[in-house]
Amino acid sequence: MDLRITHSHNWLGSILGKSVEESGGAHSIATTLLAKSGSRRSLLVMATLGLIFGIPLFGPVGIVLLTPLAATVAKEAQLCTLRVALPLVITLSIN
């Protein structure tokens, strides 16, 4: 893959990730997911999101896009951010 394309994907992913975080989209997604699954299953929810979003997205772009969501889920579930983000990163790297 051309290096310029990779950098443009990362740039676009950063912009979209920040806009999702600033607009409150990550908070509403996290609240909905935690309401439906419960905070005990937040790690499983993040792993499932990683598998779903990992199919169409380039790995680093998925990580940049979904990091605000992982931070918001960790805050809502009162868990460590690393503990919530790790299943997400692992499943994104599988694809």
Q: How many DSSP helices? A: 5
Low-confidence segments, given as residue ranges, are none
Radius of gyration (Å)? 13 Å
Shape: globular
| First-residue to last-residue Cα separation | 16 Å
Biggest β-sheet description: none
Count of domain modules: 1
How does this structure look, described?
This protein is mostly helical and 95 residues long.
What keyword list fits this structure?
single chain; globular; membrane; Glcn_transporter; transmembrane helix; transmembrane
Describe the secondary-structure layout.
Elements: H1 3-23, H2 25-37, H3 42-54, H4 59-77, H5 81-94
Helix pairs in contact: 1-4, 2-4, 3-4, 3-5, 4-5
Give a short synopsis of this structure.
The protein is mainly alpha-helical and 95 residues long.
